[in-house]
Amino acid sequence: MLVYLNGNFVNHTEAFVSVADRGFVFGDGIYEVTRVIDGRFFREKEHMQRLDEGLAGLKINLDSTEKENISAVSHELLKKNNHNTGEAAVYLQITRGAVWPRTHSFPDPPIKPTVYISTSPFKPHTELHKAGVNAITLQDVRWTRCNLKTVNLLPNTLAKQMAEDAGANSALLIRDGVITESPNANIFGVRDGVLYTFPASNYILSGITRMTVIEIAEKKNIPVIFNPIRADELFDLDELFFSGTTTDIQPVTIVDGRKVGEGKPGPIVKTIQEEYKKMLNG
Beta-strand (E) ranges in 130-257? Predict the structure, then answer.
């Protein structure tokens, strides 16, 4: 399998990053995951816009020519790995770069960022989309800049593992009595035909799929209210679902061992799933 690293296509077993890289020692970097169907990138422009926001938020200075070349490199890498047919995912990571000695402050003058891209085949979680998944509730102990898609994912990883250890698919993260998101997806609740979701802020990563769900809701005349779902109102919901690039639209039917609504995917999530699938397939 080939990957792209700092201007070169190399075998993944021969791709090495310096131990002085700030992504390694500080988690000083950002990433994006983009869905690809038969070589066509889904919402590539939106992912690149969020990339710009992440670079600006972390004050990483990536050369404009290199940034503009990311799309072409990603397409070329898909071809080289024979991932340009069927479904695939492109992973992009940019760190501030490697510098010695290790200091907390940014290098001055700025150094050349590390740019890494990989591709992999992707298989949708079709059965989970049909049946729904179970989840547990956990406290949201992440930092308060969740709107930046950084490589600092240890709290997310721990939450996901806690869910797995509990025999659940994922978790609902709760901060100050309200549900924010899951370790790797946004969350929507449905009550009386209305969608509820946490407003875009520094407490969540406003996902590309989240924005797509909102577009679909507007198209289907489904009202959307940008209010957080209170934890104590969770079981008053009729439906609950996750949204994400590799999650798609995934119903949540059981939380902490209790049914949400009727304990099965409802009509609103099914409508959104159908429209989302049409958009994915172009």
Answer: 133-139, 170-175, 178-179, 186-191, 194-196, 224-225, 229-230, 239-244, 248-255
Query: What total of structural domains would you count in the chain?
Result: 2
For 190: left if phi > 0, alpha if psi spans -120 to 50, otherwise beta; the answer is beta
- Which residues neighbour 111 within 8 Å (Cβ) at sequence distance 6 or greater? 96, 97, 98, 99
- Boundary residue ending a domain (106, 121, 136): 121
Same domain assignment for residues 263 and 135: yes
77-134 pLDDT tens trace: 999 999 999 999 999 999 999 999 999 999 999 999 999 999 999 999 999 999 999 9
The pLDDT confidence band at residue 282, using thresholds 50, 70 and 90, is confident
Query: Pick the catalytic residue: 79, 130, 149, 160?
Result: 149
Give me the sign of the Cα torsion angle 98, 103, 104, 105.
Answer: negative
Structural domain boundaries, residue 257:
126-280
Name the pTM for this structure. 0.96
CA 101 to mean position of chain CA atoms: 33
Strand partners, 259: 254
Give the model confidence (pLDDT) of 230-251 as tens digits: 999 999 999 999 999 999 999 9
**Residue that finishes a domain, picked among 79, 101, 121:** 121
- 264 as an active site residue: the answer is no
